[in-house]
Each structure stands twice: as structure tokens, then as C-alpha cells.
Design goal:
This protein has 382 residues and is mainly beta. The protein has 2 domains: 27-156, Galactose-binding domain-like (Jelly Rolls, Sandwich); 176-380, 3 Solenoid (Pectate Lyase C-like), CATH 2.160.20.10. It is built from 1 helix and 28 strands. The chain has one helix spanning 186-197, and strands at 4-7, 31-32, 39-41, 63-64, 71-90, 95-103, 110-115, 122-141, 148-156, 176-179, 207-211, 214-222, 227-231, 239-246, 262-265, 268-269, 275-277, 284-287, 290-291, 294-296, 309-311, 314-315, 319-320, 326-330, 333-334, 343-347, 362-365, 377-380. The strands form 5 sheets. It has a 9-stranded parallel beta sheet with strand order 10-11-13-15-18-21-24-26-27, covered by helices on one side. Strands 2, 3, 4, 5, 6, 7, 8 and 9 form an 8-stranded antiparallel beta sheet that branches. Strands 12-14-16-19-22-25 form a 6-stranded parallel beta sheet. The radius of gyration is 27 Å and the shape is elongated. The chain starts with a strand and ends with a strand.
Length: 382
């Protein structure tokens, strides 16, 4: 079963289709991995024959080296992947003696193929091994010129995306966690990641939770540093969590002023208590969300919180601002707003309080003069 991911806007995201299937060792048609990838060479004959020409997919451009032995050209596939074939399309200046060498780190090499009797033309070489770097190491020229290749092609497995497999997590990487309603132990995974990220203010962990369309029951997704949670429906209501997506400040003694760097988008929530808590402070967006209840922007105990952002969302109940110092809400619908602290700003928001700055400290625009939306991912098909 093939699963495609399409971007909602015509951006660079639309150039790549992601497949939500695990990488496997099953036989599959080899995929061209080398085209357009970074490439280096021991030398270039002149500016008209650069190393990049050997991996550009154009059979009318070529790389050529200086006229001496040895010479080499190396392509970086971007990640270690399982390889199956190398194709060398030689120009007249071919390699009589050469090796195909593989490396995972760019410094330690193993030989996957070698010959001393090359005769030019097109060499299609079946190889095996795993590598990030693939090198053609020419030991003997077949003519008085250098080594010259029209095309240097490397084929292997890709997990279906046209790119190398990433270790540990298939095509999306080990820290992209994809769920459907039948996935077991979702809450355990949410808790495991939160335990790692709750207080990881300057840590290296980065996590994305992706929920396929459907209904999920009895979940509380506590969102820590460098963590995002998203639904994969075309509309927020396509992916419903009967539960909460929570940010609180227990890690910092009830003070939410450092709850940065996290996000939630494209989900519908039925909060257990009737109100979802999202106590954040800057760089923590809440986009394309439908909260079927209220939304509390303050931490438990009403400690300080300092700034956040809601866009393209619907909050059926009241937004409780409480101790939240400043906030911007755009292109949304809310059931009401509780109070102001320093500055609460609205543009294009149905249900927003009227402008009354400096007291209460509301600044309200009927429309947003200009804005550019963030693209989002959705699952196309089943």
C-alpha cells in the first residue's frame, strides 16, 4: 500500500513525496541515488568539464580530469544506504584500470569492484554494500588524456522516496513518530518523549508526532521542548483527539516564561476537563486547531507566561488569558477572551474583544492586511 504526502501549498515541500511506510529489505527496483548530489574530484581538466557534470543527468556534459594517474571522482549520497549498481558512461578518454570504492565516513574505503582491462563505453557494474560515499578511483588511463565520464550513476534502495534510507526511522528519520488509530501504546510513546524533552531547554532532541486521520481516545500529549504534534488530515476535524495536547510548567516551578520551541497544528481536541492548557512563551505556535471547549494560556497555579501565537484555529469556548503577558491571534474564531495583561493583539478574529488599549490592553484589527501561510502536510489516500 502506498501512502503519499502532499504539501498544501506550492512550495519546495511539494517537490518531494514522503511515504509513511517503514524501510524494508524486500526486493525493489533500484533507485538512482546520485543525481544532483554533492560531488568532488581529484582534478578538473578545465572549467567546462566540472565534476558536477557527471551527476547532472545530462548525457551531453562531462567531467574530465588532468592527464595523469591516479585520479578520482566521489559522490556524497547524503546518508548511508544499501547499494546495488554503478553505471559509468565513459567519454573517449576512458579508464582502463579503476576501482569502485565505498565509504560510510569519506575517509575509510572498501573496494566493491575493480578492473585493469576496462575498454570504455558504458560499464554497468552490479555491486553490493552500504555506503554514503561512492568513489571511482582511476589507476590507469586508457588514452593519453585524463579520465572522462559523461555520467556517473549510483543505484540502490531508497524506501520509496528517491533518496537514501535514514537509519532507525525509515524515510522520515528516527524521531518522526507516525501514528494511526490502531497503533498500540501511543500514550507510552508520548510519555517517553516528554520525559526526554520536558526540561531539555538546550538539548539535542528533536521530535515530531504525526497523527493520521481518525479518532484517538484517552490521550494526553504533553509537549516539551523541540517537539511538534500535527494531524495529517486535510482539515483539523479529520484527526480528533479525545483528550488533551498540554503544555504546563511543572519543570520550572510553575513559571512558563521559558516554555519555548514547540508547536501544535491541524488537530481537533475534545479536552477531558472541557479546557485544554497551552501555557507557552514565544516560538510556540498553535495553528489550524479546533478546540471543542476552552483554551487556557496560563500554567497551573497561574505563574507567568510570556507570549504565543494562534492562527487559523477555532476555539469553541473561551480563551483564558489569565497571567499570559502578551499574545497574538490571527484569522481565527474564538468563543471569548478572558482578560489582558500587557498586550493582547487580534487580526481577522471572530469573537475578539474590541480595541480598548491602553486599558484593557486589547489591539484588534478587523482583518489581517497581509500574511503568508505556513504549508502543512496531509495524507493523500489511505
Amino acid at each position: 500500500m502506498t501512502r503519499g504526502i502532499v504539501a498544501a501549498m506550492a512550495t519546495a515541500l511539494a517537490a518531494t513525496l514522503l511515504a509513511f511506510v517503514p524501510a524494508t529489505k524486500a526486493e525493489a527496483a533500484p533507485v538512482l541515488l546520485s543525481q544532483g548530489k554533492p560531488v568532488t574530484a581529484s582534478s578538473e581538466e578545465n572549467y567546462g568539464t566540472p565534476a558536477t557534470a557527471a551527476v547532472d543527468g545530462n548525457a551531453n556534459t562531462r567531467w574530465s580530469s588532468a592527464a595523469s594517474d591516479p585520479q578520482w571522482i566521489r559522490v556524497d549520497l547524503g546518508a548511508t544506504t544499501r547499494l546495488s549498481q554503478v553505471v559509468l558512461d565513459w567519454e573517449t578518454a576512458y579508464g582502463k584500470g579503476y576501482r569502485i570504492e565505498l565509504s560510510t565516513n569519506g575517509s575509510t574505503w572498501s573496494t566493491a569492484y575493480q578492473t585493469t582491462t576496462g575498454d570504455g563505453g558504458t560499464d554497468t557494474l552490479n555491486i553490493s554494500g552500504e555506503a554514503r560515499y561512492v568513489r571511482v578511483y582511476g589507476t590507469a588511463r586508457g588514452t593519453g588524456y585524463g579520465f572522462s565520464l559523461w555520467e556517473f550513476k549510483v543505484y540502490g534502495e531508497s524506501g520509496g522516496t528517491g533518496g537514501p534510507q535514514l537509519p532507525g526511522g525509515g524515510d522520515l528519520g528516527p524521531n518522526v513518530h507516525v501514528f494511526d488509530p490502531s497503533t498500540p501504546n501511543i500514550q507510552a510513546k508520548l510519555d517517553e518523549v516528554f520525559d526526554q524533552q520536558e526540561a531539555s531547554h538546550f538539548g539535542n532532541g528533536r521530535h515530531q508526532f504525526l497523527f493520521k486521520p481518525g479518532t484517538y481516545n484517552n490521550l494526553n500529549a504533553e509537549i516539551g521542548f523541540y517537539t511538534s504534534i500535527s494531524g495529517l488530515g486535510l482539515k483539523p476535524d479529520d484527526t480528533t483527539i479525545n483528550g488533551d495536547v498540554t503544555v504546563d510548567a511543572g519543570w520550572f516551578n510553575g513559571n512558563a516564561t521559558q516554555n519555548f520551541w514547540r508547536s501544535a497544528e491541524n488537530l481537533a481536541l475534545n479536552p477531558v476537563s472541557g479546557t485544554n492548557r497551552w501555557a507557552v512563551s514565544q516560538a510556540a505556535s498553535f495553528r489550524r486547531m479546533h478546540v471543542k471547549g476552552g483554551l487556557n494560556l496560563a500554567p497551573n497555579g497561574y505563574g507567568w507566561a510570556s507570549g504565543g501565537y494562534i492562527a487559523d484555529s477555532k476555539i469553541d469556548g473561551q480563551v483564558g488569558n489569565y497571567s499570559q503577558q502578551q499574545w497574538y491571534t490571527r484569522e481565527s474564531s474564538i468563543g471569548g477572551w478572558s482578560n489582558s495583561v500587557w498586550n493582547q493583539t487580534f487580526s481577522g478574529v471572530e469573537g475578539a474583544p474590541a480595541t480598548s488599549f491602553p486599558e484593557p490592553r486589547y489591539t484588534t484589527l478587523q482583518t489581517t492586511p497581509i500574511s503568508r501561510e505556513k504549508p502543512f502536510l496531509y495524507l493523500d489516500g489511505n
